[in-house]
């Protein structure tokens, strides 16, 4: 919006009208794009994705409990619920674990 405003105001000699016209036109385009997104989004599918993410968080919390009970090997758990890393995991390991879980959920849906 700003480069177009500068172009209309300075180069085309429209002054303040060119600046305001570019800003208004930019907001109009943004509004139309947001409305199209709102109308054409499959909200049921988005709700299902959010539900799966919530389930992923619950699975991680469940695994955290199992690790603390000694039922799972430490290397296979990224502790999401508490925000802490299990011994032997660095932040890259945790990120890879979360990404692979997210990919598995997306692949099954």
Write the layout of secondary structure elements.
Layout (H helix, E strand, L loop, with lengths): L1 H10 L4 H25 L2 H27 L21 H18 L1
Helix pairs in contact: 1-2, 3-4
Explain briefly what this protein structure is.
With 109 residues, the chain is mainly alpha-helical.
Can you give a write-up of this model?
With 109 residues, this protein is mainly α. It is 73% helix and 0% strand. The radius of gyration is 24 Å and the shape is elongated. The protein folds into two domains: 39 residues, no CATH class; 66 residues, no CATH class. The chain is built from four helices and no strands.
Strand content: under 5%
Main sheet: strands, sense, barrel = none
Radius of gyration: 24 Å
Order of helices and strands: HHHH
List keywords for this structure.
2 domains; 73% helix; elongated; 109 residues
